[in-house]
Specification:
36% strand, Type 1 dockerin domain
Length: 471
């Protein structure tokens, strides 16, 4: 009865926390061979690699770490009622089937996994997820692993772990803390205990990093897997018919790959996908990944592709009092995605690079939006203007530039003829008298820049036509 309950609850708990997808994957064992990786790295001048303990918490869906606080809470429950089962599975859920039905890892600095969650290895540090909730009296599990594989029937569990934006970038290799978790068969089914690990990139197809067996926590190291951390004790169960939590003095291991899995250092890594290869309906076969660490490389910055757009392709000159610098073109800067460097934010500089016209470049609260204010009437020349925007990636570097052109018109040059004359006055009078002015809009007649067309616009045009100054 205990095993049946455990298996049924396992399926129910996992179904709500993982994504199921149909199988459609490459058959190759490794997406990138070592020679290809070396060639790619050799072709790109690189700065020192940075070791990153990768955050997989977005995909955590199972709790397989037990603590003293949880164990003592289970004992307290038993002390209050000696007729209830009091394993960690019974009190908190999950915490089971790493070996016997109620086995899980023990978190203890002297006898188990480190309480800090930091597992130091020659490859680099791994950071485990939280082993318990802040308040164990709530009797809630604290997901700290990514489980995947297959339940009874056709359902397959595919887990996708998306990295936080700050950790996305180009990596040379990666390694995982992992273990074969759980296997049950019926009707003569045979489990294969094999998994696939894919890398998801910002561009292109996913890369198959590994396809092969996965190792159990009590097995011996082999050519594929090496011990990342030994635990001298583990949490288990004792007693019948009432079962309770106990500690067993038996060595168990948390594994990682003996050799790291190569990644494509020319593409931005955004996450991973984990799945089992099992297809038999009469098999439940699951593995668990607890943490990952990668070496992020910083090749010579790749160019960023920049695009510019503007709300209008012209504006009038300005005056200090009448127009108040309201005649302007709004320039919007954008980065064509995906950014090959993996940046998520950018710094932008905009400057005028050619005339004869003149603008004043003004920043706004949005670093990607700029105002190009028409130059001062009488002090600067009208005409074509070229501006250039330079974009620099804030997180991982890279730079790109783009140019845009616009025209600064003489104040009152409504018809864009290059001068202010009778035809401009004719068009303004039509607008003021409600007559059709095809090809023109409010912007053409709003000489003051206040957003409307009225008597003040006619006054300013008359000043210009009569050679008077416009304040």
């Amino acid at each position: 009865m205990a095993n049946a309950r455990s298996q049924g609850c396992l399926a129910a708990r996992l179904a709500a926390r993982v994504t199921e997808r149909p199988a459609a994957h490459a058959s190759a064992r490794l997406a990138l061979m070592a020679a290809a990786l070396a060639l790619a790295l050799g072709a790109m001048p690189a700065r020192a690699a940075e070791t990153i303990a990768l955050d997989l918490s977005a995909a955590f869906n199972v709790d397989l770490l037990g603590t003293d606080a949880e164990r003592l809470e289970a004992i307290a429950i038993h002390d209050a009622n000696e007729y209830v089962n009091w394993t960690l599975y019974d009190i908190f859920g999950q915490h089971h089937h790493l070996g016997a039905p109620y086995d899980c890892y023990y978190v203890h600095n002297s006898y188990g996994l480190p309480t800090s969650g930091l597992v130091q290895t020659a490859f680099g540090p791994y950071q485990l997820g939280p082993a318990q909730t802040a308040d164990v009296t709530t009797h809630q599990a604290s997901p700290n692993g990514v489980t995947f594989g297959k339940l009874f029937g056709p359902d397959r569990i595919v887990a996708t772990a998306t990295l936080p934006a700050a950790q996305r970038g180009r990596y040379s290799d990666v390694n995982f803390l992992l273990v074969h978790w759980y296997r049950v068969t019926r009707n003569g089914g045979v489990a294969d205990k094999r998994i696939r690990i894919h890398a998801d990139y910002a561009t292109g197809s996913p890369g198959l990093l590994y396809e092969g067996p996965v190792i159990g926590w009590s097995a011996a190291a082999d050519a594929t897997f090496a011990a990342a951390r030994e635990s001298a004790r583990h949490i288990s169960s004792a007693g019948s018919p009432i079962r309770g939590v106990t500690l067993k003095i038996e060595a168990r291991w948390l594994w990682h790959f003996a050799q790291p899995l190569g990644l494509d250092p020319t593409r931005t890594l955004v996450g991973f996908r984990f799945e089992g290869t099992e297809t038999e309906d009469d098999v439940e076969d699951l593995a668990c990944i607890f943490a990952a660490t990668g070496h992020r490389v910083a090749p010579a910055d790749l160019p960023i592709q920049v695009a510019l757009s503007k709300d209008y392709d012209w504006c009038y000159q300005n005056t200090p009092q009448t127009t108040l610098d309201r005649h302007a073109v709004v320039l919007t800067v954008s980065v064509v995605q995906p950014d090959p460097n993996g940046n998520s934010s950018y710094s932008v500089a905009v400057q005028q690079t050619a005339g004869p016209g003149s603008v004043t470049v003004q920043s706004t609260a949005d670093p990607l939006v700029w105002r190009l204010v028409g130059g001062r009437r009488g002090d600067t020349a009208p005409g074509a203007v070229t501006v250039e925007a330079t974009v620099t990636g804030n997180e991982f570097g890279g730079q790109g530039t783009a140019s845009e052109t616009l025209t600064v018109r003489l104040l009152g040059d409504i018809d864009a003829g290059g001068s202010v004359g009778l035809s401009d006055k004719v068009q303004l009078n039509k607008a003021l008298n409600g007559l059709p002015t095809p090809g023109y809009e409010l912007r053409h007649f709003d000489l003051t820049g206040d957003g409307s067309v009225g008597l003040q616009d006619k006054v300013q045009l008359n000043r210009v036509l009569n050679g008077l100054s416009v304040p």
